[in-house]
Amino acid sequence: MENCIFCRIVGGELPSYTIFKDEIVTAFLDINPVAIGHILVIPNKHFTRLDTINDEEIMKGLMNALIKVSNQLIASGICNDFTILNDNGINAQQDIMHTHFHIIPRHRNEKIELKLPTDKDAATTEKLEYTYTLLKQLL
Question: Does residue 139 surpass a pLDDT of 80?
């Protein structure tokens, strides 16, 4: 995708602080970091959302890169703990329409707060069983 900023980074058209790259994945520092060492991990091939990836090699490559880069953060001394985030679609607040994962270093007493409130209605036995039935029949 010629206008995709991430495709342009992969293609070398735009500069980046790339810390890992292979034939499947590129990982680079986020230029709008939430914390020091905030890294984006993307597939080199353009996929708008995670659920559109149907290639086993790309799936494995992404997971391997997430683990490898997380270990780089820990080995560097930047952090011991981290959060991995991935948004898919406008309603999920995806800002760049190229699949990407954020690896965010975490520290004690930091200002970052990711707390998701429980939806009490969705947590009822009736709703859980209904959701389970819908999902289970698709497997």
Answer: no
3-class SS of residue 65: helix
Residue 113: burial class (beta carbons within 10 Å; 0-12, 13-18, 19+)? exposed
Local structure of 24: helix, strand or coil: coil
Q: Which two tokens stand for residue 124?
A: 């009822």
pTM (2 d.p.)? 0.91
The CATH class of the 5-136 domain is: alpha beta
Closest of 44, 57, 54, 56 to residue 4, by C-alpha: 44
Instruction: Find out whether 73 and 35 touch, Cβ atoms under 8 Å.
Output: no
> Taking residues 129-139, what's their average pLDDT?
90
pLDDT > 90 fraction of the chain, expressed in percent and rounded: 88
Torsion-angle region of 118 (φ positive above 0: left; ψ -120 to 50: alpha; else: beta): beta
Positions annotated as catalytic residues are: 100
